[in-house]
Amino acid sequence: MDFLIFQAPILIVQASLDGILLGILFALIAYGMALQWGVMNIINIAQGDLVILGGYIAYSMYLAGIHPGWGVIVSPIVMFFVGWGLYKLVINKVVDRDLFISILATFGIAIVFQQLMNFIFGADVVVAQSEYGTTMLFDNSVTLPNSKIFSAFISLLYAVVLVIYMKKSKLGRAIRATAQNARAAKILGVDTEKVYAATFGINAALCGVAGALIAITFTLHPYVGLPYTVRSFMIVIVAGLGNLPAVAISGMGLGVFEEFADYILGTEFRIGSVFMLLVFILVYRRFKLSRKREYLK
Amino acid sequence: MNKIAKLFIAFISALTLTLASITSSFAKVEGEYIVLGSAISLTGKYSSNGVHTQNGYNMAVDRINKMGGVKVGGKSYKFEIIYYDDESNPKRAAQLAERLIKQDGVHYMLGPYSSGLTKAIAPVTEKYKIPMVEANGASRSLFTKGYKYLFAVLSPANQYLEVAIDLAVEKNGGKPVKIAQAFEQDAFSQDVRLGILDAAKRTGSKIIIDDKLPKELNDMAATLAKVKATKPDVLVVSGHTKGALTAIRQISEMKVDVPMLAMTHCDAAKLSKQHGKKSEYALCASQWHKNLSYKDKFFGGGKKYDKDFKKEFGYAPPYQSAESSAALLVFKDAFERANSFDRDKVRDALKATDMQTFYGNIKFGPGGQNVAKPMILFQVRCKGDTCENKVVAPTKWASDKFFHPIPKWSERG
Questions:
Q1: Is A118 part of the contact surface with chain B (CB cutoff 8 Å)?
Q2: Which residues of chain A make contact with B211, given a CB cutoff of 8 A?
Q3: B227 and B102 in a common domain
Q4: Shared-domain flag, residues B28 and B142
Q5: Could you read off the pLDDT of B320-375 as tens digits, one per residue?
Q6: What is the number of structural domains in chain B?
Q7: Is the separation of the CB atoms in A251 and A23 below 8 Å?
Q8: Which domain holds residue B326?
Q9: pTM value?
Q10: In this structure, is residue B259 part of a structural domain?
Q11: Is B84 helix (H, G, I), strand (E, B) or coil?
Q12: What ipTM score was computed for the predicted complex, to two decimals?
């Protein structure tokens, strides 16, 4: 236990801001996961690996001399087609099977992606330099890397655009209809196959954006995808499916919680504490549920 | 169809049989070849360092074979290595070690890459009493288990950054310093941490931040905010390449001012290339540097090794390659002194090793670790936009003066 954070109140500001900026980025990945989970009932274990692949696209641009910040536009476009192709190749065969099959299939995809990225980009840890500089607040006692602010801003932008798109566009309506009741949607003339492919593509595109942002804020390595999968999974579990504001809030909440756990319990409990929180939330939900209705087993 | 299938099966079984007979005929010494075995990470997360290791081994094998080979009993033998890809997976590495020993009949082993994999293989080689010379497992716990057949040409992990603390104390006018440290939670980094704890105790220094970074983590913002608030004299970070890259990125972004920053894995992370000027003044522990003045008759000195390696593989040798090449020199020396292929005689000869290679002096302590070679520290220094690693300690090999304290970010261009 360390109470340094309470002795230096400025650290509370730092921790909260860091947590919120981090959380928004995670929320974007989680939103993609929630979307395709809700629509297709697939838990995508390869989510984090799609993120990393998106990051490598931005990194490749950086190597080619293009500013990696443009990755937030290029990467989702490329990743949309990767997602689309992945759906046509594998996911369409598991989409109406039970959850276990889809977990197994996406787990397999995750391994293939990791090895491919290792093969193409090498096993070295890499970073892309954005040179965005730093914002200093309170006489340099709180520092926020502009790359993190940029990440949060872009994440929010994509989230808002997506919400509007889902509400207004034809495809968005079709996706929502399919999520509500795939059979009914099909009967009413929605091409669910196309909807599924588009949903998976959109999810991959969101991963692409997040990956490009991670390339400029953190580090890339072919094998670091899983933590992103786990965290987005956690955010979705906490927030529930199909509820974007909840995803954003739970993302930020988890981000802030993580930062504070780091300061108070120590860095080694940072990720562990998030898991603890998840257990509490699940138990609490179960408790609430059991009070509401009873059912026979 | 059925016929084709049968034919195919027949073909496959014939092929397997032939292969089986070939592999089983490999023995410890086959004709004029001394066969060594190694499980090495050619795929998976250690693959780049695995390849550095393999290149180091291959370079030494070629060189020794070309320069007359190994003379045992008046006859000249050549080295040959059987490699298997362990996929960077400890379980797989242990299986492959069994396979090398039991199926391929290998009697002498070379180590894999990383402490974790060496730890997985050591119990196997120990069980079958197979001497193993390893060059890439520095974890202290490898040398405290009483292994009798394990020999490491590199300095153990706890020595990596001890020197840095001594240096900090020296710069502080001999007075104890305040240390902030962040280490990944893995065997190697935690051993580096133990070394710092020892050094702190010895010098009376105080550790004010002691963070353990989870493996999955690539964000040190919280640790660095604490560093900013507490103002230590020296910040020590070790978490493989990811840790080094994350640390420099976030230290520069958060404008963390510390007088001294000591790290590991700077060269593996290509710090000076990936982060350029932002990494300037970072102090890094290294097993080897080409400017050291050690010599042997196979590779000449470090500079010549550097040149030859570049010519052969197209990149400058990281220390992982240099130490791997040194492992072969140790084996050669031991075979010739034992003048026999008896495993126990070779083992005893290895135990009595006391030699100089281009990589450094090699002499094994009771646990099998190399006790004759000090770690070196280099500092990243930049001229314009090109940054280089300059040796600053120990003084015997220092090409440049240690720059202290690190200028504040507000004064850095």
A1: yes
A2: 266-268
A3: no
A4: yes
A5: 999 999 999 999 999 999 998 888 899 999 999 999 999 999 999 988 999 988 89
A6: 2
A7: yes
A8: 24-155+292-363
A9: 0.83
A10: yes
A11: strand
A12: 0.83
